Amino acid sequence: MSSPFAGIVDRYLLASSEFTRRLRAVGPEQWSAPTPCTEWDVHHLVNHMTRGNLNYVSLLDGGSAAEFIRLRDTDALGGDPLGAYMRSVRECAAAFRRPGALEQILDYPLGPVSGEQALAVRTTDATMHTWDLAHAINAPEELDPGLVAWIEDHLTDIYADLAESPVSADTAHRFFAAPEAPPLAAESRQARLLRLMGR
Known about the structure:
By secondary structure, the chain is mainly alpha-helical.
């Protein structure tokens, strides 16, 4: 039986390329546009994604959960948001391709986790934030159907044993927004996943 995280680096790169595609479409006047994450505008969202990639690399290098949280809002974009994001993706993918990286236990903020599970969380985050960015800039909101199917099929595995999970009734919703709408009779997979993730 194959692992739910088989091919996770390739899935991460796919999710990141989908985010990059929307990022390329951001107009000069849209960086201050609001996003579905109410505390962030587009600039904050892109910084969150870029800094997050760099923080995952730091975890592989022995960084702590406390350091991860402390750095999560520091600027990672400088004057080149697109370039900074794309570099962070390359650095993150290269780090997780190191021998043993996927088996390494990381001091993740939501609890100790293997490298492959951490990257699965990162891939899910990138996919959800792709929709957030598309919605914020009025770009096409359709997500990659293969990523949507993989995330929905493996949500329990992706967030297994973590302190916060979108599929747990006990989640404090500090990291995940609570679903606002009840399920519809004929939801698409994407609509169902977005609802579960608080969109």
